[in-house]
Amino acid sequence: MTVFDLREACPGDAESIQEIYAPFVKETPISFETEVPTVDEMSRRIEQYRATHAYYVAISNNKVVGYAYGSVHRAREAYKPSTEVTVYVSQNEQQKGIGRSLYAKLLPRLRQKGFHAAFAAITLPNPKSIALHEAVGFTHIGTFKEVGRKLNAWHDVGWWQRLL
Questions:
Q1: Structural domain boundaries enclosing 50
Q2: Cα dihedral angle (117, 118, 124, 130), rounded to 10 degrees?
Q3: What is the mean pLDDT of residues 52-74?
Q4: CATH number of domain containing 15
Q5: Interval 124-160: pLDDT, tens
Q6: How far apart are CA 25 and CA 123, in angstroms?
Q7: Distance between the two ends of the chain, CA-based, in angstroms?
Q8: Separation in Å, CA 5 to CA 97, 100, 104
Q9: What DSSP designation does 116 have?
Q10: How far, in Å, CA of 19 to CA of 12, rounded?
Q11: Which listed residue, of 3, 68, 80, 150, carries a Cα 20 to 30 Å from 93's Cα?
Q12: Inter-CA distances, 51 with 48, 54, 78, 114, 144, Å
């Protein structure tokens, strides 16, 4: 069993977070980004999401092995009580409870900050992500068919929701 600690992310975590995220961008349709963000961009995102929502990292053996954050769900005013959540765990550290633990820290913090509903977008198929989200209380609410094109294929995105 992996032993890990959770803490609030800081801009100094940007390089480690980029290393975790890069394979998902380059090799899978899980992220719809097509270029890996720079370390500076990752640092900017950490500061932005911490200021408005929350951002946590999981640390094992002094190394970031996963991260989760809340961000803006939609821009219009009436959507402000909703948040989109994201979690990524290093490919060699998955299915060790890290994602669940990150959400166990993130979701109550988002509720404390006044958010009412959390949404997760999952590129399909992705049974591991679906299992994680459903294990922490998310419910499938719909699927956008062929909404994104990456790696020469169309991809569906399922949406999961949890009221906070």
A1: 5-163
A2: -100
A3: 97
A4: 3.40.630.30
A5: 999 999 999 999 999 999 999 999 999 999 999 999 9
A6: 12
A7: 29
A8: 12, 13, 13
A9: -
A10: 13
A11: 150
A12: 5, 7, 20, 14, 30
